[in-house]
Write a structure and sequence with these properties.
DNA polymerase, domain 1, 49% helix
């Protein structure tokens, strides 16, 4: 690395600066750079297998090979040094790899799961069935190249000349780039990006930006002033990325174009100049590839428009068409795009640069170890280019023309949301993708009687607690079963039948329960809008009085243990005797049996109170049993009051303190 930096510092680039034409400058630059890189950074080939871990680099493989060579030759000292070096490099590479992977992971569990599966080798590779069936990769490579070129096979291209649109363009000059601007942009180049067709690695630009800034500033200024995009930077190396896990044809691959890193830096400056001239002319309906816009802004704009339309015209429908253009980036017509740029009135030198950028482009497809022959690009913008997104949204800008004012389009890149699809507004070769195009109708339907009745039932169901509803349900079930068995009419019940039902309940229930079960009769009649048949009914009242007199009100219950009983009992017990201790413990259990579930467990996680409810720290387990510490209950305040008086020997205290 130091040798390369020293060589670039000592290299004389005066031949590049002395050249007049931008094309010659670039050719001279490559004639100087390539021999230096070939001499100091020779191209190395290494084997990469599917069994290799993701952190294994060619350098580590080379060290492993040297270690094995030293081992086979019996060089103990050399082997030990290489062994330690391999271990150090492996640990460092693995640490760096996992740190980067974890840093790139999103919060979603799906991304973590897929990454872990990929690391342990459990995920299925995104393979290609075509590769397993065809042996001739060269023929496949050519077939891919023909397929991608078939999009513009019928295009008859006519390149505009600056004289045709000179009256529409601005004659303002492009300011020269400074050495600092070029240096800063070279430094921003991502060193991990793939190398383009010129075989100059991107990290050379980012690391040696100081050495290359001066000569590249001279070249970029010449390109902007002469309106030239050099031919060396218009050659694309296309790599294929499968759209599906197992693609079965060329149409299931996405093309990614790899171009020169030097050309991408020039694209950055062109994009900046282009946005200066056109950003205020791009319609607000476009939310893709724009600063401050995203899918979120597109969604907010769309839903707000629907809301306003439905509220303003509740009796009208909103018709929405979600349109996706098929191979949109590959079908942008260059002539239409250049016309759009001229209508926007951009600078003449900038228009000439963009015209040169779109002209005479060629692509080669790489498939496996094969590279297809060069084929011209007559339409479209390269996928992966810096300038491509901006040119694309400018090409899509004309879609808003001719749309009536009552139709609001919303665009995100090649996706269009519209209430009407106008075929005449589609530019060039673009066509809709029928599989991804959807249609939707939004209506404001006022609440019907059925929906209102359903809401009434919903709110009425919340009148009582769940335990009360369960009691009413069992009472209603018993009442209906008796009526169905005897084939009586449950509503509009006669006095005689009600008396029979009360006598029937005597066999299993006491008086108080019978009265509760008869309440369901009143509720059923109220639901039907009828009067309560039990009201001021002498026959039913005398029947219930007789049941009460003969069978009694209810079963007599023993009084519970109260704080007064505990206070009176405590002085009489001898806690040195085991039976007294057991008896006192039984009384305490009886006293604290007033516990309620709400005092121990919260209804919802948000209602948890660490002072009132049980926590993990409140449970302690021993060999002889367990101890549960309760800090709050229905009766604990009585117990605390009792204990305080028991210690002081005072009389009865105030409950609840």
């Amino acid at each position: 690395m130091r040798r390369l930096g020293l060589a670039l510092n000592l290299t004389d680039f005066s031949q590049v600066e002395d050249s007049q034409h931008a094309e010659i400058k670039v050719q001279t630059l490559y004639s100087i750079l390539r021999p230096i890189l070939d001499r100091l950074l020779p191209l190395k080939k290494g084997k990469v297998t599917s069994q290799d871990k993701a952190w294994i680099t060619p350098r580590i493989k080379g060290l492993i090979a040297e270690r094995q060579k030293a081992f086979m030759s019996g060089e103990t000292n050399g082997y030990n040094k290489l062994r330690n070096k391999v271990q150090y490099c492996l640990k460092r590479a693995k640490r760096s790899f996992f740190k980067k992977e974890v840093g790139q992971m999103k919060l979603g569990g799906t991304h973590w799961f897929s990454t872990v599966k990929a690391l342990i080798g459990a995920s299925k590779p995104r393979g290609n069935s075509m590769l397993a069936t065809a042996a001739d990769t060269s023929a496949q490579c050519e077939s891919f190249s023909k397929h991608f070129a078939s999009v513009w096979s019928s295009v008859h291209r006519v390149i505009l000349s600056p004289m045709d649109v000179a009256d529409q363009l601005s004659h303002r000059t492009i300011p020269e780039l400074s050495n600092g601007q070029v240096k800063a942009q070279l430094k921003r180049v991502n060193p991990r990006k793939a190398t383009g067709g010129d075989h100059i690695p991107p990290w050379v630009l980012s690391i040696f930006h100081e050495e290359l800034a001066l000569v590249m500033c001279n070249i970029y200024n010449a390109c902007l002033q002469q309106g030239v995009f050099p031919m060396e930077w218009k050659e694309e190396l296309v790599v294929l990325v499968p759209k599906t896990p197992k693609p079965n044809g060329p149409e299931e691959f996405r093309r990614i174009s790899l171009t020169s890193s030097f050309g991408k830096v020039l694209e950055v400056f062109l994009r900046y100049l282009l946005l200066q001239d056109t950003n205020h002319l791009i319609h607000d309906s476009q939310h893709g590839f724009r600063r401050g816009r995203s899918t979120i802004s597109a969604l907010i704009h769309t839903t707000q428009y629907w809301y306003n339309a439905v509220n303003s015209f509740p009796k009208l429908d909103v018709h929405v068409a979600f349109i996706d253009f098929s191979r949109a980036f590959d079908t942008i017509d260059h002539d239409s795009l250049l016309h759009s740029l001229s209508h926007m009135g951009i600078r003449l030198d900038l228009w000439r640069c963009l015209c040169s950028y779109l002209s005479d482009r060629v692509q080669r497809v790489k498939w496996g170890m094969s590279i297809s022959k060069a084929r011209p690009l007559l339409a479209g913008t390269l996928q992966g280019g810096i300038l491509s997104p901006t040119l694309f949204i400018i090409g899509m800008n004309s879609l808003d023309q001719g749309i009536p004012p009552n139709i609001t389009p919303v665009k995100y890149a090649d996706d269009l949301t519209n209430s009407e699809f106008l075929m005449a507004s589609m530019s060039g070769l673009m066509s809709a993708n029928a599989k991804k195009t959807k249609y939707m109708v939004i209506s404001c339907i006022l609440d019907s009687e059925a929906s209102l009745d359903a809401d009434i039932r919903l709110y009425r169901s919340g009148t009582y607690a769940d335990s009360t509803k369960a009691i009413y349900k069992s009472q209603r079930r018993a009442y209906l079963r008796f009526w169905l068995y005897h084939q009586y009419v449950p509503v509009l019940a006669t006095t005689k039948n009600l008396c029979r039902y009360a006598v029937f309940l005597v066999r299993t229930l006491r008086y108080n329960s019978i009265v509760n079960y008869l309440n369901i009769v009143r509720r059923l009649h109220q639901e039907a809008g009828l009067a309560n048949p039990q009201h001021d009914n002498w026959l039913i009242q005398t029947t219930l009085r007789g049941i009460r007199r003969i069978h009694g009100d209810c079963v007599t219950q023993k009084l519970p243990i109260t704080p007064d009983i505990l206070r009176a009992m405590y002085p009489q017990l001898d806690f040195t005797q085991a039976k007294h201790v057991v008896f006192w413990a039984a009384c305490l259990v009886g006293f604290f049996s007033f516990f309620r579930k709400s005092n121990l467990l919260p209804k919802t996680p948000k209602s948890f109170d660490s002072v009132q409810h049980l926590c993990r720290k409140d449970f302690r387990f021993f060999e002889w049993g367990a101890v549960i510490t309760v800090r709050w209950s229905k009766t604990i305040h009585f117990f605390l009051s009792f204990m305080s008086h028991a210690k002081t020997g005072e009389g009865r205290g105030k409950g609840g303190e």
